[in-house]
Amino acid sequence: MPKPVRLFISSAPEDAALRAEVEVHLRPIERSGLIEVWHDDRIAAGGEPAAEARAQIEAAEVVVLLVSPAFLASDRHFDEEAARALARRAAGEVVVVPVPVRPCDWGWTEFGKLAPLPEGGRPVEGWPVRGEAWTEVVRGLRAVVERVMSRRAAPGGRSALAAGLPPAELCIGRGLEVEAIVAALVGKPPGRVLLLGAAGVGKSTISLAVLHRPEVVARFGERRFFARLDAAPDAESAAVALAGALRIASGPDLWQQAMSFLAAGPAVLVLDNLETPWDGDDQPGTEALLAELAAVPDLSLVASVRGAGRPGRVTWNSPIELRPLRRPEAEAVFCAIAGEEHRSKPALSALLSLMEGIPLAIALLAHATHGNDLINLKDEWEARRTAVLERDGGARNRLRSWKASLELSIGSPRMTAGARRLLSVLAMLPDGIAQRDLAVLLPGIGPAAARALAQVGLAYFEGGRLKMLSPVREYVAAEYPPVVEDLGRAMEHYGELTCTLGPVPGSRGGTEAAARLAPETANLDSVIRRGLTEVEPGRWIDTATALTNFARFSGHAASLPLGRALEVAQRTGDGRREALCAQSLGDIALARSQHDEARARYEEALPLYRQVGSVRGEADCIRRLGEIARAHGNASAARARYEEALALYQRIPEPCSIGRTHHHLAAVAPDAVTQHQHVEAARSAWQRIDRIDLIARLDQDFPS
């Protein structure tokens, strides 16, 4: 007699009575030996419910979800049991059947996409005669059980898994991609699917999930094959690897045997990491091999390729390009490995943001939490960076080591010398490189090098920029620093950009200058911080302060390196630059109405300016202290500060600042006569230097 089908019922404690009802209706089927039912009430005394439930889900062939408000609200049943059941379903290992028992909104869930019982999804509790609802449910479940038993008996069924096929892996957030590939493979004519994406984005995982899907198992049975080609540098090696995946003994006619075997009936073949032989010395040979495979009448093909390359001589379906996971899916992957206790913790959010949605990096990070703590893991990342992303024994395994995975791409024959140089430069620039700057940073070869990086999946184009994902950038920055010439050119370019455009916002052309600098904010920060480590950092302190107006008028203050520049000026005993940094920080704080911070910075800068004899700097700080007093409604204190600053400006003399200070004095003048005197004094100062724009502002503020 066939072994019973293991049927798992997942239900919230609040629905125990309804679960008991369905169990009564299932009893005759269970007595006949067709099914073996498990639910929480069958836990032995002293057992641990969650652990036993996990074990039973892994053994189940059919999972029934009794959907209700309590079920949706239960972390254990919704986030653990249902999620694991759906993951096994995606791998083709189990059938999941939702049974709505009480009214609730469940269509938005992942299992909301599945056909429910009773048909139509009317909750059992809402039927006039509840027994009729359970009869429909049991009739549907009997049909499911019979299909499972038929699949067992068929070639390639559960009792005869495809020989040598690797097990399915954790596959979350890729439902649409898996469905699209499955539809192409089981349709007519046979599918020719090209799966594209960067290192670690999940191409192998999706391919295996597809091979284990029930529809694919039913269509191809044991004739499902997965050939790893990452160690096959040419067409001949690829043919040998393919024959090995088909379990064909080596011999002089190996390829002919492989082709005859594939032609014997419907089959599906995954060519994993096809880019390795295709990028090798014999690309025509690899494409000829592909053409032969594509000519097999009933052979469905899936080929995964790192980057954006599309091997020729095959009419591919529309390529499926994998993107990084969104935050909810990234968190789900992490918690499926590390444990649900980490979900929604702030430390996890910070760590996941560093992984930028790359499934392999997320999975390796999750494994690093075993016996660890999230806070400690974050500290470990700060110290070791991508060295954390490696499991025991994974140094040469691309699925267990971030380094091993990336080195496959870095070692690709498509990586030209120019691409390697650009790779190192790009790794030091968190914002990526504007396409118009590629020719500046690598004259003569920049655009071609960028194309090569994109083709192997180490970088990507987005919004007119060449970018690199954070986990890739961290690894490359540590292992492949740029050569001196390229580093110097990049430093010079971004330093000049800063000094030229940084002071412009707030004046004519400021909008255009801010628009040019805004996409480069993190790059400027990175370059300036690197420059501040030089033996003579003065130039880079000046570069940092050149961004003050950009920060004041654009709001991009958070990542600017002024604080670090101030520390370097203090350490090197450069009083003038120390004062300038403190004043710049005060100017930014004042622009954001952070008056206490601004006052402290100006008072920090004042004695330093006096010490180095900078009258202009001293006057600027005093005038801004007047602005703070005025903002707080203290007109007399503001007037005293303005008059003190005016006397200093007149010693230089500095007509623009003299006019500006008279303008401020007019605003706090005690009477109309004094106000008029200051207005005329400001007008006179600005007329001498032809500042029509400032005079217009004066006339607007104090119309005659």
Short recap of the structure:
By secondary structure, the protein is of the alpha/beta class.
User: How many strand segments?
Assistant: 12
* Major beta-sheet overview: 5 strands, parallel
Described by the principal axes of the CA atoms, the overall outline is elongated
Average the pLDDT over all residues and give the rounded result.
89
Work out the helix count.
Answer: 34
Strand-residue proportion: 5-15%
- Give the N-terminus to C-terminus distance in angstroms: 106 Å
Q: Roughly how many Å is the radius of gyration? A: 34 Å
Strand order of the largest sheet: 6-7-8-5-9
Give the assembly state of these chains. single chain
| Fraction of helical residues | 55-70%
- Structural class category: alpha/beta
Poorly predicted spans: 155-161
Structural account:
The chain is an alpha/beta fold and 704 residues long. Helix content is 56%, strand content 8%. It has a 5-stranded parallel beta sheet, sandwiched between helices. Helix 9 packs across helix 10 (254-262) and helix 33 (672-688) packs antiparallel against helix 34 (692-701).
Keywords:
alpha/beta; four-stranded parallel β-sheet; single chain; 704 residues
